[in-house]
Amino acid sequence: TGVSALYYNPANLAEHKGFTFDFPSLNVGVYGLARLQKSMDVFAFIKELVCGNLDIASMIDKLSKLFQIMNYGVNPFLNIQADVGFTVKGFGFDVFDSVGMTVYNMSGLTNNTKFVPEFAGGVVIGYGHKFQLSEKATLSFGISQGLVMRTYVKGFGISDLQELTGGNIFDFLKGRQTAVGLQFPTNIGFTASISDMLKMSIVYRGLHTGMTVHNYGTLGDWMSSPFKIFKGGQDSHGSARISETGSLDVGFGFNPKWKWFNPRVEVDFVNLTKYGKTEYFDYTNFFSHLRIGVEMFLVEFLRVGVGLNQGRLNFGATLDLWPLVIDVDYGWYDTTPTLGEAMTDRLSINVKLGWDRAK
Questions:
Q1: What 3-state class would DSSP assign to 210?
Q2: pLDDT for 212-268, tens place per residue?
Q3: Are 56 and 161 in contact (CB under 8 A)?
Q4: 328 touches 320 (CB < 8 A)
Q5: DSSP states of 255-291 as a string?
Q6: What's the Rg (C-alpha) of the chain?
Q7: Buried b / exposed e along 163-173 (16+ C-beta atoms within 10 A)
Q8: Which of the four, 38, 47, 223, 356, has the lowest number of CB atoms within 10 Å?
């Protein structure tokens, strides 16, 4: 809902006729938390990493433990996103910035493990409009357009850090080769409300998500003149094209208005454009496309939920004490191509401050 509708189904913006303002929304996701916490204080490590307080010697020690825990595959480790946005009379706008850190281990050997930071920032605008078809039936349409800049820093392992004798992690990162690209993702969505209790939706997310990435030298070189990306490959040392397929999702929602019990049940079939295909991940398994969730209010300001998210169990809770809203969810995710082969847990916490004129 709200600004998040821009990223999922922009038709949801049609429900927001009042003015809402989120300032800001901060989301932190930590992967592999259960395993990491047994071998090191993962929250202290993240704090030192983000604040730049890790020197090279400490970084080598911490990463050695991290690499030993992470198994074969593409293992997300940390994701932080902050955004500010508003909605008014069906229009939505959002500005965001994110940092992601992923551990790549394609051979199973610790010495070949790479730690890859990624940065992204951008703006998204959207609009949703509702059509009244009958007394109870409505059809909503929405579209959103984004401009996203993605920055990929060359991965590094233990051997790369051992060559250094001093400096902190940010000084080290500034010397790494960097690739930068622009994306212009478009989301288009429809939601049909057949009655007060039943809804159906269809949304195509990530249209035009492919991009050309350019190498402008090191991260330090790039940071000295970040807007050169709008010149394309004019000042680059080399370029490469990344092609991505958008996602076609179909959903059904059921929200009965019972006297003592008022659950919300949703069933979604996601990534249908990839059904039956095998890229890095195996999309031939039916459960890799299925999401089922049940959510209900315990009290007026607290709702809880449980879901099966593409073959993985998730639990969540939302505490709505406007202007403060706190979302917490915990679940499991695959980090290998085959569904269910290797699971890692993820804890996600979202804290949002905002103002809602409708309330």
A1: coil
A2: 999 988 999 888 888 888 888 888 888 988 888 788 999 999 998 787 778 999 999
A3: yes
A4: no
A5: ----SS---EEEEEE--GGGTT-BSSSB--SGGGGEE
A6: 22
A7: eeeeebbeebb
A8: 38
Q: What is the pLDDT of residues 292-348, one digit of tens each?
A: 999 998 888 899 999 998 878 899 999 988 889 999 999 987 666 555 566 788 899
Give CA–CA dist 25/38, Å, rounded. 30
Q: Which of 244, 287, 245, 285 is nearest to 268 (CA)?
A: 287
Cβ–Cβ under 8 Å, residues 347 and 35: no
Please tell me the distance from the alpha carbon of residue 210 to that of residue 9, in angstroms, as a whole number: 20
Alpha helices in the chain (DSSP H): 33-39, 42-51, 56-69, 158-162, 169-174, 219-224
What's the whole-number mean pLDDT along residues 39-55? 74
Q: Give every CB contact of residue 8 below 8 A, 6+ residues apart in sequence.
A: 187, 189, 203, 205
pLDDT in tens, 142-173: 999 999 999 999 988 888 877 665 566 777 88
Q: Please report the pLDDT score of residue 167 as a whole number.
A: 62
Report the alpha-carbon distance of residue 151 to residue 351 in Å, rounded: 25
Which three-class secondary structure state does DSSP give residue 11? helix
Burial class (CB in 10 A: 0-12, 13-18, 19+), 298: exposed
The model carries a pTM of 0.84
> What's the rounded Cα separation, in Å, for the pair 93 and 125?
4
Nearest-angstrom CA–CA distance, 195 and 215? 53
